[in-house]
Amino acid sequence: MSKALPEIRCHGRSNCFACELRHEMLCSHVSLEDLVNFHAGIDDYDYDHGSILYHAASPMDAVYCVRHGAVMMVKPGLAGALRIVRMLKTGDVAGIESAFSEAFEHTAIAVGEVRACRIPIACLRRFVAEHGGLQMRLLEKLQGALREAETWLSQLASGPTPTRTRMARLMLRLRVGAGDRIHRLSLDDMGAIIGITPETVSRIISEFVGRGIIAKCGSNVAHHRCFRGDIRALEKIAQGV
Amino acid sequence: MSKALPEIRCHGRSNCFACELRHEMLCSHVSLEDLVNFHAGIDDYDYDHGSILYHAASPMDAVYCVRHGAVMMVKPGLAGALRIVRMLKTGDVAGIESAFSEAFEHTAIAVGEVRACRIPIACLRRFVAEHGGLQMRLLEKLQGALREAETWLSQLASGPTPTRTRMARLMLRLRVGAGDRIHRLSLDDMGAIIGITPETVSRIISEFVGRGIIAKCGSNVAHHRCFRGDIRALEKIAQGV
DNA sequence: CGTGTACTTGAGTGGGCTCAAGCAGGGTGG
DNA sequence: CCACCCTGCTTGAGCCCACTCAAGTACACG
Fold first, then answer.
1. Chain C footprint positions (protein CB, under 7 Å)
2. CATH number, domain containing residue A174
3. Could you read off the pLDDT tens digit of each residue along chain A, which spans 241 residues?
4. Are residues B100 and B188 in the same domain?
5. Do A108 and A201 belong to one domain?
6. pTM
7. Which of A34, A131, B72, B100 is buried deepest, with most CB atoms within 10 A?
8. How far A53 CA sits from the closest chain B CA (Å)?
9. Which structural domain, as residue segments, surrounds residue B22?
10. Contact state of A143 with B140 under an 8 Å Cβ cutoff
11. How far apart are CA A145 and CA A134, in angstroms?
């Protein structure tokens, strides 16, 4: 994707041509020529920790391609209780679940620093209608989201499975890339994911730290903090040893 | 869909033209003429309670349109533990999640008497490639599956939510149509869904029966048995009253 | 009629929840 | 720069619910 790029400068907008993630994203399989029409209207946004991409039940007006960082998908439950049902990472698309609905089904919240491309829904629909390849891509993304949600359900959701085991699984899922760094959410958020109280989360983390399995690092400022974990040890615990 | 049907008799095969569910299914938005080619290769099967449509990890060779009954989707967990992550009802399609994978991700098990159309994957792919409308339909079905999975996660999966509340929610989800009949799974299956032990399930059911909220009915033969429930009462409990 | 499977019921234990107090650290205003 | 507050985290004590283990029952099937 290096030579003979169309000569287009994106003034304050996203530049799809220079995007190093293009082939992971929705727009892969779309020729550069076609992209010229597509990327008009697409904007690039930065969100910092805790800020909200969109609210559940608000009108569905766009999807967001996550280019950096992680995004929590929060689903409103029955008794007003919130539950984090999925996490998006680089390459995932926030909002496709609602692509054909009137309103968003989740609230999407940034975890750490997030960079995302906002694609207006009209723009997406038009482009999908014209490009069979894009539909396939959408299908794949949706499939991925479904798999992820089910994995959360089967591995993280409580049951007779010990809490420590589930906590270890959660940490592994929150791993940043392939290193030993792990996203450090708030106690409440972690509790909302695996379905336990923040107090219990705190106790288990203390225990893990005491056993040398994880260590808190980075400043305590929400934006930059994280864990560093002994991945092997976590995997052992995650398997129920 | 009544007049001027193509004159085709399906010898032992499914007859898409006479299918009263056609408009709920994948093949809606497909003209009857096109269906002539499509439905060749599609077979109609009956499964009785507990029989298996396909196994997880076995090669992905077909999808199944559920025309009657319910189907459990079972996902293999980490420690070999099984977890029921979703249930399909009339109009749902089993196997699309794996439409572009090599192997099935779930094991699909019939609940009660099930009738389903088996669509070979090659047949589906060919037809999808030719019909944009079908792709949309697939997207919608996939979206529905995702929504369902997330609902299970947020409402049924444990957490500080009392077990009785979750049991009530489960019963409501297992409701057959709009009446007061409720699919009666085995204790183990129910336990595998909301993540508790079969003993606890038994105790809660006993309690509900004692309170007159539900009643066991039908013969005790697995195939025909069910609950009849006081839907109002269940809804109250489901909301945490 | 015997066997096996699924369900029921009981007693006892322990893990996670509840309630509550104490602590640290960062941000704000003086 | 310091004092203050406020939010998020930690830690403790006590209790209750659901798990474990185990025995007993009902029912379908061979």
1. 6-10, 15-20, 25-27
2. 1.10.10.10
3. 433 333 333 444 566 777 777 777 776 666 666 666 666 678 888 888 888 999 999 999 999 999 988 999 999 877 767 889 999 999 999 999 998 899 999 999 998 888 999 999 998 888 888 777 788 888 889 999 999 999 998 899 877 889 999 999 999 999 988 999 999 999 999 999 999 999 999 999 999 999 999 999 876 665 678 999 999 999 999 987 7
4. no
5. no
6. 0.86
7. B72
8. 20
9. 8-141
10. no
11. 16
Whether B210 sits with its Cβ under 7 A from any strand C atom: the answer reads: no
Candidate from B79, B159, B240 with C-beta closest to A195:
B159
Q: Which nucleotide is nearest to B220 (CA to C1')?
A: D27
B101/B111 Cα distance (integer angstroms):
25
Give the count of domains, chain B: 2
Preferred mutation among A82, A127, A142 to probe B, highest tally of B CBs within 10 A: A142
Please say whether the beta carbons of B47 and B53 come within 8 A.
yes
Rounded distance between C-alpha atoms, residue B15 and residue B36, angstroms:
10
Angle at A175 between CA A199 and CA B84, to 5 degrees: 75
Upper half-sphere CA count for residue B108 (Cβ side, 13 Å)? 29
Q: Do A158 and B195 touch (CB under 8 A)?
A: yes
Which of B79, B85, B142 lies closest to A139 in CB terms? B142
Residue B75 sits at the vertex; the CA angle it makes with B73 and B81, to the nearest 5 degrees, is: 130
Distance from CA of A202 to the nearest CA of B (A): 16
Phi, psi of A187 (to 5 degrees): -60, -40
